[in-house]
Amino acid sequence: MKTYALENVATGEILAHDVKQARSPWLRAVGFLSATTVTPEEGLWFDDCGAIHTIGMRANLDIIFLDREHIVIGIMLCVPPNRVWLSWPSARAVVELGVSEVRRVRVGETLRLRSDGPPGC
C-alpha cells in the first residue's frame, strides 16, 4: 500500500512520513485496530469523513479534523482508546496520527499528502 508524507503546507514541515489514505472499506473499518502501538510517523487519512471512534484500539492517537480544502479546523491530542464518537463541525476529512509531543500544527493551516517517490511516478 502506498504511503505518503503528511505536509503542513504553511510551514513545509513534514508531520509524519508513513501516512496511508484509508480508501478501501477494509482499511476504513479496521484502521489502527490491530496495532498495539502507533508511532508518531504513522497515520491514516480519511477523506469524506467527519467523525471517527477509538473503540477497541490499544494506542492513543492525535486526531486532526480538516474541512473540504484540507484546512485544519480542529485538533484533539493524545486521544485515548474506547471513545465512541469524535467529530468536529464541518469536518470533511480526518487524520489519525501516532501521538507526538513535538508535532506542530495549528487551526487554519493546510495539510496535504505528499508522495516522495521518484519524479514521474
Global structural class? mainly beta
CATH topology: Jelly Rolls
Q: First CA to last CA: what distance?
A: 15 Å
The fourth-level CATH homologous superfamily is: Protein of unknown function DUF192
Biggest sheet overview: 7 strands, mixed
Mean pLDDT: 93
Q: Oligomer, anyone?
A: single chain
In helices, the fraction of residues equals under 10%
Number of strand elements? 9
Shape type: globular
Tell me the domain tally. Answer: 1
- SSE ordering: EEHEEEEEEE
If helices are DSSP runs of H or I spanning 4 or more residues, what is the number of helices? 1
Portion of residues in beta strands equals 35-45%
Task: Identify low-pLDDT runs.
Answer: none
Strands of the widest sheet, in order across it, are 6-5-8-3-2-1-9
CATH architecture: Sandwich
Gyration radius from CA atoms, angstroms: 13 Å
CATH class division: Mainly Beta
Task: Describe, in plain words, how this protein is organized in 3D.
- The chain is globular, with a radius of gyration of 13 Å.
- It has one helix and nine strands, in the order ββαβββββββ.
- The model has no long low-confidence stretch (mean pLDDT 93).
- With 121 residues, the protein is mostly beta strands.
- The chain starts with a strand and ends in a 7-residue tail after the last strand.
SSE map:
Blueprint: E1 4-8, E2 14-21, H1 25-30, E3 42-47, E4 51-52, E5 61-66, E6 72-79, E7 86-87, E8 93-98, E9 111-114
Parallel strand pairs: 2-3
Antiparallel strand pairs: 1-2, 1-9, 3-8, 4-7, 5-6, 5-8
